[in-house]
Amino acid sequence: MIIVKVFNNNIVLVKNKKTAKESILWGKGVGFQKKAGQKIVMNKNDAIFVKEAESDWSRSFLSLSEEIPLKYFEVAKKIVQDASANMQATFNPFLLISLADHIFFTIKRAKEKNGETELPISEIKEDYYKEFKQAQLAKNYIEQEFDVALPESEAGFLAIHFVENEKESVKNYDDSKQIKNRATNDILEIIAENLHLDMTDEKVNFRRLKTHLKFLLTRIQNKEFFRDSKEDKKLYQQIIKNYPELLDCEQAISDYLAETFNYHLSKSEQIYLIMHLRQIVKQKDTQKEAENED
């Protein structure tokens, strides 16, 4: 590698002679008494970061490097690499910098026992399942590297970093989110029409139903099919016998999924759907009874 520029005693800009690719090399004393044009050999304790084209990125990286230790950049780099591979996504290059900064202050607060910043993570789990799942892995890795216990909400903060910096996901993944959201809204409209429900009613909790629909639609998109057993078929007959008022709604949803996705619900999936519908109707009936008593 050839030195392109010396930033300080510990950080230099280098270029690979074969690929002409520029990188930032960070290591104790790597820039001491060095000049542009000189050869440099990387040792095992040095860390290398790909230099992004944007000059703002370089300035931000160098500015933050004066404030926080190298290890935070290395941990952030590993997290970004793992997330990129597992999620099949490309991230904004500034994620490395913002993540390193976030981890530094998170560890600082944890070790100083300043308490945690609360973040409601239930909706993050539902809306950004893939990002949240990866964020949980990142949280575990941070805890191991810095020997500290972090609150569950930390996974939510990390997931938000992924979401806000996701630059170029696999196109099908982006499209699938839009399709899933549209289908969820369509099914909710079917339910509202068939069961005469107000989906904006805050007294009725639709969260479990929405979560069920999102997982159902994810399975449909992933083409994960359920096979019926004899017990499922018998149970389904018993369920519709007990709750005949829900059959039309369940059939309308099944027809929608068949027409839209060419997917035919199994009996077990129909059973789960009916039971979720039953919970919603039960909440509505309980609410009416309470209002009548008043």
CATH architecture of the largest domain: Orthogonal Bundle
Uncertain residue segments: 169-173
User: Would you tell me the structural class of the helices and strands?
Assistant: alpha+beta
Helix content: 55-70%
Distance from first to last alpha carbon:
80 Å
Order of helices and strands: EEEEHHEHHHHEHHHHH
Number of domains: 3
CATH fold-level topology of the largest domain:
PTS-regulatory domain, PRD
Biggest sheet descriptor = 4 strands, antiparallel
User: What is the molecular shape?
Assistant: elongated
Strand order of the largest sheet: 1-2-3-4
Q: What is the average per-residue confidence, as pLDDT, rounded to a whole number? A: 82
**CATH C-level name of the largest domain:** Mainly Alpha
What keywords describe this structure?
4-stranded antiparallel β-sheet; PTS-regulatory domain, PRD; Transcription Regulation, Sacy, Chain A; 11 helices; 294 residues; 6 strands; 61% helix; two-stranded antiparallel sheet; alpha+beta
Question: Can you characterise this structure?
Answer:
There is one protein chain. With about 290 residues, this protein is α+β, with helices and mostly antiparallel strands. The chain folds into 3 domains: about 1-50, Transcription Regulation, Sacy, Chain A (Roll); about 55-170, PTS-regulatory domain, PRD; about 170-294, PTS-regulatory domain, PRD. It contains 11 helices and 6 strands. The chain has helices at about 55-65, 70-85, 95-110, 120-125, 130-145, 155-165, 170-195, 205-220, 230-240, 245-260, 265-294, and strands at about 1-5, 10-15, 20-25, 45-50, 90, 165-170. A 4-stranded antiparallel sheet has the order 1-2-3-4, with helices on one face. It has a two-stranded antiparallel sheet with strand order 5-6. Helix 5 packs across helix 6 (about 155-165), helix 7 (about 170-195) crosses helix 8 and helix 8 runs antiparallel to helix 11 (about 265-294). The termini are far apart. This is PRD domain-containing protein. It comes from Lactobacillus helsingborgensis. GO terms for molecular function: RNA binding. Keywords: Repeat. It holds the Pfam family CAT_RBD.
